[in-house]
Automatic annotation (TrEMBL):
The keyword 4Fe-4S does not apply. The keyword Repeat does not apply. The lineage of its organism: Eukaryota, Fungi, Dikarya, Ascomycota, Pezizomycotina. It comes from the Eukaryota. GO terms for molecular function: DNA-binding transcription activator activity, RNA polymerase II-specific; zinc ion binding. Keywords: Nucleus. PANTHER family: STEROL UPTAKE CONTROL PROTEIN 2 (PTHR47784:SF5). Residues 24-58 form the Zn(2)-C6 fungal-type domain. This is Zn(2)-C6 fungal-type domain-containing protein.
Length: 408
């Protein structure tokens, strides 16, 4: 007779092997109960706690390792794949951080945001274009990174991200320039504005160890490009928010009623005092190429008009915006002289950055006067050092015009 099997209870007969929850929440693991692993809040915690979002907590998932299909897989290749995955995650996290910062903070600080058209531009048009056009999106990320660098000047990750986003935006922007149409015109012009501002703030990317100084030629070229882009996009943006924003600038070009030699260059019409600048009375004798004199004169005339507006005869916010758009009133030939390293052109350009020092309250101007003027002083020869004394003095004595009276 065969032996009978041992009798087992019903509970023993129904018992199944326990499958551990590898990715369950910490609460379920501590209670030794099965977790359904639903993130961010699992089912058992929802049933157990009145505020499960405060209790349920998961361990961070390890990022998956992407392996190449090959006959051999070395530990080094697996480590490289892990590094690439982590890098992609870090890049995505940086993008989210920067776009959130722009949407919640930076957009409230942009030029002409006090006006309805300015708010529409920076609060609505720019984010909307960013979702559709990658070169606008990366330009927005660059602006947000530069804004954050004001409080974190040595943050290498922000510096690196700024370079990357500017490069990506410039690449896409340049590709679009040859195909401006009804659909992309507003985005192209928006990208031009953002890129120009980003390049003007290049000093924020350098931290404590800037490279050897070079003239701000990229910024000046972009400024000239904005003028050309406006002409090309103008037929397509007649009824757009971009056009309404641009229309706010119609009165920004100073009305120059006198030639620059007909009034003293150290005092404006309302008597606002500047340090005395001898360059305006001596530049003609210093010029070694008389054929360039008309371009020098036109540039100095424009700068003197900007200078004449500084004081209390015009709202400070308009002076700020006008000075920020320097190149709109300067001949293209002047930029060519700068590219050649013309010392007289360099010392004339330094006067523009000296004027910026009087109105550098907005973050998108701060730091540029010091960086550019001291850099230009390092470029000119000994025979031109005297011509840099005026802008260097302004860095020490300039008081922000209207800052105390207007609360800007």
């Amino acid at each position: 007779m065969l032996p009978l099997p041992l009798e087992t209870s019903g509970e023993q007969r129904m018992q199944r092997p326990h499958r551990k929850s590898r990715f369950g929440c910490k609460i379920c693991k501590a209670r030794k109960i099965k977790c359904d692993e639903k993130r961010p809040i699992c089912g058992p915690c929802i049933k157990r706690f009145p505020n499960p979002e405060e209790e349920c907590c998961f361990e961070a998932l390890s990022p998956p390792v992407t392996r190449e299909h090959s006959s051999s897989s070395s530990p080094a290749s697996a480590a490289d794949a892990m590094t690439n995955t982590l890098s992609r995650h870090a890049a995505r996290a940086m993008e989210l951080r920067l776009f959130h910062h722009y949407s919640t903070t930076t957009c409230h600080t942009m030029p002409l945001v006090e006006e309805d058209a300015g708010r529409e531009m920076w609060f609505v048009t720019v984010p909307t274009s960013a979702f559709e056009y990658p070169y606008v999106y990366t330009a927005v990320l660059a602006i947000a990174a530069l804004h954050l660098l004001g409080n974190n000047p040595d943050d290498v990750s922000l510096q690196t991200a700024t370079y990357q986003y500017i490069d990506e935006s410039l690449s896409g922007y340049r590709n679009e320039l040859g195909n401006i149409n009804q659909e992309n015109a507003a985005a192209v012009f928006t990208a031009a504005l953002l890129l120009s501002m980003s390049v003007r703030l290049r000093h924020r990317c350098y931290g404590a160890n800037p490279p050897p100084y070079t003239l701000p030629l990229n910024y000046l070229h972009l400024q000239l490009g904005i003028r050309q882009v406006y002409f090309e996009t103008h037929p397509f943006i007649q009824d757009s928010s971009v056009r309404r924003y641009v229309d706010l600038r119609r009165d920004l070009k100073p009305e120059i009623k006198r030639e620059f030699l007909e009034f003293p260059m150290n005092v404006n019409r309302n008597g606002f005092q500047f340090p005395h600048d001898v360059l305006y009375s001596t530049w003609g004798a210093l010029s070694t190429n008389p054929e360039r004199n008309p371009i020098y004169a036109t540039t100095l005339t424009y700068l003197s008009g900007l200078k004449d507006g500084i004081g209390f005869d015009e709202e400070i916010r308009w002076i700020q915006r006008r000075l920020a758009w320097l190149i709109q009133g300067i001949p293209r030939e002047f930029l060519t002289y700068l590219e050649e390293g013309d010392p007289l052109a360099i010392v004339i350009l330094s006067r523009f950055y000296a004027l910026l020092k009087y109105i550098d309250e907005p973050w998108w101007i701060q730091g540029a006067p010091e960086f550019e003027i001291r850099g230009m002083a390092s470029l000119v020869g000994e025979e031109w050092k005297w011509a840099m004394e005026w802008p260097l003095e302004v860095l020490e004595v300039a008081v922000r015009v209207g800052y105390e009276n207007r609360g800007l």
